Amino acid sequence: MKLAGVVYAATKAFPQEEMFGLTSQLRRAAVSVPSNIAEGHGRLTDNGFAVFLGQARGSLFEVETQIEMASTLGYIKAVEAKKMIAECDEVVKMLNGLLKTLKEKETKLAP
User: Is the pLDDT of residue 110 over 80?
Assistant: First the structure.
């Protein structure tokens, strides 16, 4: 959820004309990451959890792309964008680790 907070703080400075464009899209994608993790955690199966982790991962890649776009457009300073991308990289490592653990668990249970 740290990433979503960082995104919300950064997008406060975006131009008003982006309120329903990049600002909204970036915020929704950032909130989608922890939301999908939470929803997946509530599923009754590891496969169900894995599906939502995959969706969270997809949203995270959206966030990265939109941060790069915001930086290209001059809405975020390059240094700030770099820090945000580094945070995305940390989150994707955690998601990949969870997915790997679930897959290994599935493999051990297979006949």
Answer: no
Q: Are 44 and 96 in contact (CB under 8 A)?
A: no
Task: Go through the domains of the chain in sequence order and give each one's CATH number.
Answer: 2-109 (1.20.1440.60)
pTM: 0.90
Q: How confident is the model at residue 107 (pLDDT cuts 50, 70, 90)?
A: confident
